[in-house]
Write a structure and sequence with these properties.
Blueprint (H helix, E strand, L loop, with lengths): L1 H13 L21 H8 L3 H8 L8 H10 L4 H11 L6 H7 L1 H9 L5 E4 L5 E4 L1 H6 L15 H7 L1 H6 L3 H16 L6 H13 L1 H7 L10 E7 L3 E11 L7 E6 L1
Antiparallel strand pairs: 1-2, 1-5, 3-4, 4-5
Helix pairs in contact: 2-3, 4-5, 12-13
Organism: Duganella alba
GO molecular function, one term: DNA binding
Protein name: Helix-turn-helix domain-containing protein
Length: about 260
């Protein structure tokens, strides 16, 4: 993987012109692109370190450094995402992108004629439609607040969840195992670590299930509810990831 990262950085360095980053193009050059020393200076690292990175040696690049490199090399959104994927690092720009995408996410779920909602990596609901709000009393129908409604907080801390969700114990165990699989290597991210610590402290059930280390893939299938006003309900759950935002999941409960 380090070799692929080095090859990717070198290829984009060699196609980035000095003029595009405000450097004079004078002097004889082997390629029209940036010299290694120039990219190193622009990214505030040593030329030796950058050489080792391009050669695939065992050196580590931080998310902040990769973000700076993506800016200097004028990487597109797809190229930037690929860079962070090769380096196995989180993009610091992730949260800003999530905020900017809000309006389009609302439009997506509003167009679905069935309960539908969208979750981010820590399972906060970032968008939902009126069908979902009507189904999930105590979660998505709550008054607006600074905090986004979180599926795990609802599941383990809201009394309404235990009455609404048929076979709550089985669903709770599966949700925790799905969540562990979902967050994977991101579990140490501050927001996720804080959520896990909070739920472990507030809910003995969550704490017991989290310590089991169970992992299952997030799948669809029958979801059953006992709604206080609509009675017994059954849906087929379908979960999809957005093509341009792999951290977001669209969950649809179809008749």
């Amino acid at each position: 993987m380090q070799d692929n990262l080095g090859d990717f950085i070198r290829a984009h360095r060699e196609r980035t012109t000095p003029a595009s980053v405000g450097l004079p193009a004078g002097g004889r050059r082997r390629t029209p692109g940036l010299r290694r020393e120039e990219l190193a200076q622009l990214c505030d690292v040593s030329p030796t370190w950058l050489t080792w990175l391009e050669q695939g040696r065992d050196v580590s690049a931080s998310g902040k450094l990769l973000a700076r490199m993506a800016e200097v090399l004028h990487l597109s959104a797809a190229e930037r995402s690929y860079l962070f994927s090769l380096a196995e690092r989180l993009d610091p720009q992730h949260d800003a992108d999530a905020e900017d995408a809000g309006d389009s996410l609302d439009d997506i779920v509003a167009a679905i004629d069935a309960p539908a909602y969208m979750l981010d990596r820590q399972w906060d609901a970032v968008a939902w439609n009126t069908h979902a709000a009507a189904l999930f009393g105590g979660w998505l129908d709550v008054a607006s607040s600074p905090a986004r409604p979180n599926l795990l907080r609802f599941m383990f801390r809201a009394a309404a969840a235990r009455g609404l969700i048929v076979d709550w114990e089985d669903r709770a165990r599966r949700l925790v195992a799905e969540f562990r699989a979902d967050i994977g290597k991101h579990a140490g991210q501050p927001a996720l670590a804080s959520l896990i610590a909070e739920l472990s402290q507030d809910s003995p059930e969550f704490h017991a299930l989290w310590t089991l280390q169970d992992v299952v893939s997030r799948e669809g299938g029958l979801r059953r509810f006992h709604h206080p006003s609509m009675g017994e309900l059954g849906f087929n759950q379908v979960t999809l990831h957005l093509a341009k935002r792999h951290d977001l999941k669209l969950v649809m409960l179809l008749p």
